[in-house]
Amino acid sequence: MTLQGDFAIASRNPGKIREIQRVCADWLVLWVTADADPRPWPEVEESGATYLENALLKARAVSGALGIPCVADDSGIEVDALGGAPGPGSARFAGEDADDESNIRLLLDSLRHGSVRSARFRCVAVAAWPGGLEVHAEGVCEGAIAAGPCGASGFGYDPVFVPEGEERTMAELAPEEKDAISHRSRAFRALRELVA
Fold first, then answer.
1. CA 167 to CA 55: how far, in whole Å?
2. Which of helix, strand or coil describes residue 138?
3. Which CATH number, 3.40.630.30, 1.20.120.1460, 3.90.950.10, 3.30.565.10, labels domain 6-195?
4. Per-residue pLDDT tens digits for 72-105
5. Catalytic site includes residue 74
6. pLDDT one-digit tens code per residue, 171-192
7. Which is the catalytic residue, given 74, 99, 100, 109?
């Protein structure tokens, strides 16, 4: 396993791509992304039942199509009062074509007054090579669901997630503050140790 040459990021989410490039700034690779690459990229349906299955589906498809190593991740928010939901289905919590605002609205509506609001962000990051080699790592950020959205940074459920030890939501943190504690940064830092 080497960290050099072209490395694809199997995502079309600009916020996620920026985060991965920031937290993996010490990887000695040239990042290849769908928006800047002239080759056709596969559309991958995240049909897996777990974060790992979904991340592998994306990494394998893109690595196979482009013939270069690839990283991918899958992440979600797990709310204790909802039995760990929405979990791997977080992006589609309010429906297949749901946007962040719809998902957040449904999440807040699902939490009745007085509900336990403890929650966590979980991320599984994978790296896959064309020859079939694969490694993965997981990162978790514990916290709680806020009463309402606050903050304009980040994406997904960031405006309603307050990390443990913080009074601000993830969306109120500066990028470097988020990267120091986020589930994604923890997963990719752990992945880095496996492919160093």
1. 31
2. strand
3. 3.90.950.10
4. 999 999 999 999 999 999 999 999 989 999 999 9
5. yes
6. 999 999 999 999 999 999 999 9
7. 74
